[in-house]
Amino acid sequence: ALDLFVVEKIFRRSGAKTPCDLHAAKRSYVNNTTLGVCTVRTGLCRYARLGDPLDPGCALPAWDGRRLPKSFGDIFEAVVGAILCDLDWDFEKFSQVVESRLWRHIE
Q: Based on the structure, what is the number of domains in the chain?
C-alpha cells in the first residue's frame, strides 16, 4: 500500500510518467534505508529491541546510534501495514493518514 501511495504521489507531482520512471522514483522513497531512517525520525527506534522476546533481561536496544539495522526498515513497513489493517483496508483513509502523519518522514 505504501508503494501505491508513493507511486500515486510521484505521478501527480512530477514528470515521471512511464512505468520505468515511476518505478525508479519509487525506489528512492520505498527502500530499506529510507524506511529505516523513517523509524528513527518517528521515534519508533526507541521501542525496538533485539534478543529473545521470552527473556526480557536479554533484550538489547536495537540501535547504537551509528549504523541502522536492517530491521528498522521492516519495523516501519510493519507499522504502515498495521495502520492499513486498522483502517479496514480503506486506501483513501490510509492515504490521508500517510499524507498527514508520515509523508514528512519519508520525503
A: 1
